[in-house]
Amino acid sequence: MDMQIILGAFTLFIALALSIGIHEAAHAYSAKWLGDDTSEKLGRTTLNPLPHLAPMGILIPVGLALMQIPILFGWGKPVPVQLDKLKYGRFGHLLVSVAGPISNLVLCLICVVVMTAYEQSFKELIPESHFLYPVIKLTSLMVYLNAILAVFNLIPLPPLDGGAILPIILPKAARTFFEDYIAPYGFFLFLALALSGKMNWIWQAASSYIKMVEKFVLAMFS
Helix, strand or coil for residue 128? Predict the structure, then answer.
């Protein structure tokens, strides 16, 4: 197998581990801050990605990358939340649910700052032969990966974060309908959506966010 393919898959593995680890840690820390210590007792309030990783959530995208089918998504172990322990009721649950996608958007922003600094000040100092160049490649990948993960997780179907967020903001009658007739089939509905080939909007939304962030960062550097 081509060494470049192996290196690309390894880079994706590291990027997924870091991005998913921070995503799940954000859920865990926000739940703890809002009064639910369940995740803390399970060792999930940590930035160490290992406790947060779901083996198949990493192996499937990395395996596809080795087959030269790059798909920038993955998933981790869900963070358990006891709603009766959370402060602010449904609003507290909403804060915990959005913490993961927000962490990916923030991480995307940080990576854009690093890449902008590299392009404007360090590109000549760190050519492709430099030992730090793999870090640049990793950072560049994480720009796109985190934007996609944020949008992907906001799809309003369980088990994604959007599937927890939507019923929180729906009125009672609509929430009951969602929980009774849509949520139990969330995985199959998502699978049907994925197989339909109608997922380009995720990339379009992620790209729009990246472009907006790049303009903001460039304005800061100018």
Answer: coil
